[in-house]
Amino acid sequence: MKRLLPIALLAAVGCVRASTFEKLQADYATSLKRVEQSDASLASCSRRVRSDPEIEKLKKGWTLVPVVVASQDISENTVLTFDMISQRPVPEQFVTTSVVKPDSASYIVGQEILMPVQTGDMLLWSMFETSKSVEKLSSFAKKDLRIFTVETTPASSCGQWVRPNDHVDVIAVLPSSEGKGMVATTVLENALVVATGKITGQTNLNLVPEGERAFKHVSLLVKPEEAERLALAQALGKLTLALRSSEDEGLRKSATPTTVKALFTKTGTAPR
Questions:
Q1: How far apart are CA 87 and CA 78, in angstroms?
Q2: Confidence class of residue 169 from pLDDT cuts 50, 70 and 90?
Q3: What is the pLDDT of residues 37-66, one digit of tens each?
Q4: pLDDT by residue (tens digit) across 200-212?
Q5: How many CB atoms lie within 10 A of CB 113?
Q6: What is the pLDDT, as a whole number, of residue 119?
Q7: Which segments of the chain does DSSP mark as H helices, in order?
Q8: Residue 101 CB contacts under 8 Å (≥ 6 apart), including other chains
Q9: Phi and psi of 209, rounded to 5°?
């Protein structure tokens, strides 16, 4: 009660009446008690928040992973430098393939960012210059040529090693025209690949997250009659791409379909 001492002195010297002093003393004691109760309530609330079993259970389920964030406010159209970024752990469930991870930070440094970000914001692949343009596949088609898309699997696209600007042959496995077994025939040679999925030759592959590089379609630049042949072959059977050397531009003079019988004959094993 040290703070009451000045009031007590005033009362002692007659500057404050005893009744007034008692009222002031009571008011102060009441206020002090309210402050103590408020402090105790806040402390209790803090303990309850920290010990809430639901919150603790939720935190225990979090797996933190590092992501790249802005270490400062960055304005639109700024070329990113290493000084502008850092890393921060966030719960794994909030991190998608669109978020830049620390091991990929070098791919965005030197790139122009398309939008302003604030300190602490996670950086996304879509924020950068090389991801900006929405490419029109038709822009790759030349006069009198067409773009035809072939459905593929990893096995039918050379383990997905096919890339835009590669050249491929297209092999079709079809029912025999005689109605006996299957035949394999090359329906198209030396076709230019213009896109794998949504990735074209103008796409910076380093700025495409690993999980978005897989594809189920390959688009080829072909003549109109070749597009018709591919459409028919794809409807009747299965197409497979054979990757060509960049130095091989030759075409076979004749392409005889391979039959099951010919296959076993060539390998020296007769069919049973």
A1: 19
A2: very high
A3: 666 666 666 565 555 566 565 566 678 899
A4: 887 777 667 777 7
A5: 20
A6: 94
A7: 5-12, 18-51, 53-60, 105-108, 224-236, 260-267
A8: 65, 66, 67, 68, 95
A9: -55, 145
pLDDT score recorded for residue 233: 94
pTM, whole model, 2 decimals? Answer: 0.53
Identify the band that residue 269 occupies on the pLDDT scale cut at 50, 70 and 90: very low
Q: How many CB atoms lie within 10 A of CB 145?
A: 16
Residues in the chain: 272
User: Can you spell out the DSSP letters for 64-120?
Assistant: EEEEEEESS-B-TTPBP-GGGEEEEEEEGGG--TTBPPGGGHHHHTTSBBSS-B-TT
| Residue range 242-255, pLDDT digits in tens | 999 877 877 776 66
Q: Going by CATH, does the domain composed of 64-131 fall within 3.30.1330.60?
A: no
CB 104 within 8 A of CB 95: no
Burial of 215 (0-12, 13-18, 19+ CB in 10 A): middle
Closest by CA position to 240, among listed 166, 163, 186, 177: 186
Phi, psi dihedrals of residue 26, rounded to the nearest 5°: -70, -40
Two structure tokens written together for 189: 């040679």
Cβ burial of 225 (10 Å; 0-12, 13-18, 19+) is exposed
Q: Would you kindly state where each structural domain of the chain is located, as residue ranges? A: 2-39, 64-131, 137-267
User: What is the residue whose two structure tokens read 């002692």?
Assistant: 12
Q: Report residue 270's pLDDT band, with 50, 70 and 90 as the boundaries.
A: very low
